Amino acid sequence: MNPSLEMLIHIFERAALLLICLFFLTRVPRFKESLHREQHTLSERIIITLIFCLFAVFGTYSGIKVEGSLVNVRIIAVMSGGILFGPWVGIITGIVSGVHRYLIDIDGVTSVPCLITSIIAGIASGLINIKVKKSQRWIYGIAAGMSCEVLTMLLILAMAEPFKLGLDIVSKIGFPMIVGEVNVGLIVLLVMSVEDEKEMIAAKQAKLALDIANKTLPYFRSINTESLKKICIIIKDQINADAVAITDTKIVLAYVGFGEERYNIGQEIISDLTKAAIRSGEITIRNRVSDQPTPEIQSLLIMPFEERGEVTGTLKIYYRKASKMTYPLQTMAIGLSQIISTLMEISRVEQIKEAANKAELKALQTKINPHFLFNALNAIASTTRRNPEKARELIITLSSYMRYNLELSDEFIDIHDELQQVHDYVEIEKARFGSKLQVEYDIEKVNLKLPSLLIQPLVENAIIHGILKTKGPGTVTIAVNDLGDKVRISVKDTGAGISDEVIENLYRDDVPARQIGLYNVHQRVRLIYGKGLIIKRLSPGTEVYFDIERRKDESDHC
């Protein structure tokens, strides 16, 4: 057999061994996952660089000796590493393998040329990785590899003494070494075929995310504890997770699966990882968890929900098995969290509209409520006989109150306009009930806009269900306090007091029709500001308050 052809076959055999090793590496989950990533961590780059350095050094050691030179696959390993994984891998592999080649044969005819071209191959491979489209890298890899081998032959001819020796070496190894660089293209194509799986994985996981979204869609029509639990169950079953949780920025809203008995709905978030994810708005992935109240959990994925650029909660996925957060799962979960964020925002908007409609209906009922109007006119009529001037003031107050209700819209209004409406309502009620009703105001000066009809229903509730339920006189205190980062609005009474059952029903969204006014305010406050009414039993009486946080986008409501 022709010696050049025989050497070419040997080169292909050694390149085939490299291909086989790479093939098995691509079957290793951790290595395969690193191929799917656009960016690699420092540890991953170090490991990949070591692998290709070993391939290149092995390529030198497994070379065929010809007249003081080595027919080997070193340049193939250098070019493949740089093209596939970037300049870091290519240049370091080129330097390490080139220096190694020089040191094992310092006085050899080809040692210096091989050192030079190994480093040049590393640089060239890195440039191909940066400058050339993925689909064309294999072709450029073959061309660059062949060019490096041609340069090696030219350097051997230039540096060999005598020249005849260099010419003899080049005549024997030139053809197989140059043609053997075809293997660069084969290796690049092999590894890129694994990378191409990423597109198929993305498509498959996108379909899974859409399937989950389709199954959970009915439960987004009315977001509450039960619907969120159903959503978690669907996600858990679809992705075979051990546990799934949904939180807002403060508390756990739903938790299903392993460790469920350790979590209470409404429990404050205690995980530092979750708090950090809410603060940063970044997805958190942990394959070996150290920050976890359930020690059996080994892997977790925390994905913040965002609405209008602000984090409103998280979706958390748990596995008891370590290293379970693979690239396919991450791809699906990220897409799913984005879909759920959108669905929750749409649901919230729809619920706000629904609550607004209910509030508008309630307002209309107040406007045309014949009992309220009849009682107010009766109070004015009786006052006319005793105090005509006071009756005149009450008529103006009633007129102002009715005009305010007629002009209601769904836009945010200045808090002082809302308080004026409350004052008008209170004056009418005081005229009706006389000394039985005392009202105090603790109003600090604040610059704030809020939806209409948030405060008046609370005052009405305090009077009708609080003060009027007792025999003696009572006091209602209306307060607006500036707490720096938030404004607290509270209504407190010394009346009969609210029962625990009513409070529990309110928080469970299980409210009878006669308490719909308080529930409407609770729903609207929760949907608009993220947290509903806080109700406290006093001795005697009840306090109801809510906080409005000062935010950068507060001016949007102005």
Automatic annotation (TrEMBL):
InterPro entries: Bact_2-comp_sensor_kinase (IPR050640), HATPase_C_sf (IPR036890), HATPase_dom (IPR003594), Sig_transdc_His_kin_internal (IPR010559), Sig_transdc_His_kinase_LytS_TM (IPR011620). The keyword Kinase applies. Keywords: ATP-binding, Cell membrane, Kinase, Membrane, Nucleotide-binding, Receptor, Transferase, Transmembrane, Transmembrane helix, Two-component regulatory system. It is a multi-pass membrane protein. The lineage of its organism: Bacteria, Bacillati, Bacillota, Bacilli, Bacillales. It comes from the Bacteria. PANTHER family: SENSOR HISTIDINE KINASE YPDA (PTHR34220:SF7). Its main location: membrane. Residues 446-552 form the Histidine kinase/HSP90-like ATPase domain. The keyword Flavoprotein does not apply. This is LytS/YhcK type 5TM receptor domain-containing protein. Pfam families: 5TM-5TMR_LYT, HATPase_c, His_kinase. The chain crosses the membrane at residues 46-64, 76-96, 108-128, 140-161, 173-194. It is found in: Cell membrane. Signal peptide: none annotated.
